Amino acid sequence: MKPYAENAEKKGQISTMFNNIAKYYDFLNHFLSLGIDRSWRKKAIATLQEKQPQSILDVATGTGDLAIEANRQLKPKKIVGIDISVKMLEVGEGKIQKQGIDDVITLMEGDSENLPFEDNTFDAAMAAFGVRNFANVTAGLKEMVRVLQPNGKLVVLEFSKPTMFPFKQGFNFYFKYILPLIGRITSKDKKAYGYLYESVQAFPEGQDFLDLLTNIGLKNATCKKLSLGICAIYTATK
Q1: Among 145, 154, 152, CA closest to 123
Q2: 4 within domain boundaries
Q3: What is the C-alpha separation between 93 and 164, in angstroms, rounded?
Q4: Number of domains in the chain
Q5: Spatial CA neighbour of 83 closest among 14, 141, 27, 32
Q6: Residue 217: strand, helix, or coil
Q7: How many Å apart are CA 219 and CA 222, to the nearest integer?
Q8: pLDDT in tens, 22-40
Q9: Residue 2 lies in a domain
Q10: Which of 111, 134, 224, 234 sits a CA distance of 20 to 30 A from 61?
Q11: In the chain, where does DSSP find H-type helix?
Q12: Does this model's pTM top 0.90?
């Protein structure tokens, strides 16, 4: 699933798309989700409380919201956020510097499928609403596992598809028609928020994603649905 031309490389398209919408991204996230996205991130980070990781990798960090929440809750020694969109990282850097936490959180440009870190580097690895944007989901997850220390924890927060009638029908109408329209008018990118809906439909959610985590060698894979199934928190250990 690609946001623009089908015959072009996905990574470049994803980078372009997020560069285009970077300055609108945080506003639209909070506005279009009615602010619920903040509670999703809080709950995702809460799954790491037991481990108390001191070094954390945030893949597809975007504007750094998940990394900032991890610092707030966990107070680790180091968080590294990596993303392919320079413009998103610039917005994130501004937020991190404003909060005075740039001594803990470092953001850097990079590719999820070719992480610039040694094996067994981080106590935890996480991603929020980014895994479905990987050019190759399995390859990106394997890289996250590679840089995890033994017994390290993986946390993935990702959209899913509600199944409860009539919420499913109402949400699908909003997600497919209303949300892309607002996103297009606000961000001026005609494709980005239509791609959001399409990429969620194509993503291997629920048991399929749990099976994928198990197949790449992770243990104790779990899935917790949030907000009547709008999104889900996946966890597993190396």
Answers
A1: 152
A2: no
A3: 39
A4: 1
A5: 14
A6: coil
A7: 9
A8: 898 898 888 888 889 999 9
A9: no
A10: 224
A11: 10-32, 36-46, 65-74, 86-99, 137-147, 167-173, 179-187, 192-202, 207-215
A12: yes
